[in-house]
Write a structure and sequence with these properties.
It is a single chain. The protein is an alpha+beta fold. It folds into two domains: about 1-30, no CATH class; about 35-90, no CATH class. It has three helices and four strands. It has helices at about 1-5, 45-50, 65-80, and strands spanning about 10-15, 20-25, 40, 55-60. It has a two-stranded antiparallel sheet. A two-stranded parallel ribbon has the order 3-4. A hairpin with a 4-residue loop joins strand 1 (about 10-15) and strand 2. Helix 2 runs parallel beside helix 3 (about 65-80). The protein is elongated and about 45 Å long.
Length: about 100
């Protein structure tokens, strides 16, 4: 939704859980194509899910190193084959 909000003069959405009436979202980002997007990953499967969306993963550091390493590997595999929700795919920077 966010990349669409950034590019449309007026944005609206009607979904299963909520509706957004026609709204002018400002300010629009100056950066092109748009700033990188990230999502918090609180469940083990979240890193892979956001990777498939081409969004950066913010993994919580409350797990053992082996668990985090597995999440990062799953994220990297998913983001390599992502169908980005925005106009760019986040690139993994570090472990």
């Amino acid at each position: 939704m966010i990349p669409k909000m950034w590019s449309a003069e007026e944005y609206s959405y009607k979904g299963r859980f909520f509706n957004i009436p026609p709204t002018c979202v400002v300010p629009k980002p100056l950066q092109r194509p748009h700033p990188p997007m990230f999502a918090a990953c609180s469940k083990p499967e979240d890193a892979e899910t956001v990777g498939r969306l081409g969004v950066g993963a913010l993994n919580l550091a409350m797990y053992r190193d082996e668990q985090l390493a597995d999440r990062v590997q799953r994220y990297r595999r998913a983001v390599a084959e992502a169908n980005p929700v925005g106009w760019l795919r986040n690139q993994p920077l570090c472990v």
